[in-house]
């Protein structure tokens, strides 16, 4: 099985998509809230489908 190669989103990308400040994403990460990010060295990357799924789940939670 070959995994599809898709660019992972940076913190900047996720902040822009969600319309929130970057500091908010870092705060959420410390609180265990928000979309799942993976640390790669000193960088955090997000799978776009995870961010979108998290965002969609917030609609039903509100």
Automatic annotation (TrEMBL):
The lineage of its organism: Bacteria, Bacillati, Actinomycetota, Actinomycetes, Propionibacteriales. It comes from Kribbella sancticallisti. Pfam families: HTH_17 (PF12728). Residues 10-58 form the Helix-turn-helix domain. This is Helix-turn-helix domain-containing protein. SUPFAM superfamilies: Putative DNA-binding domain.
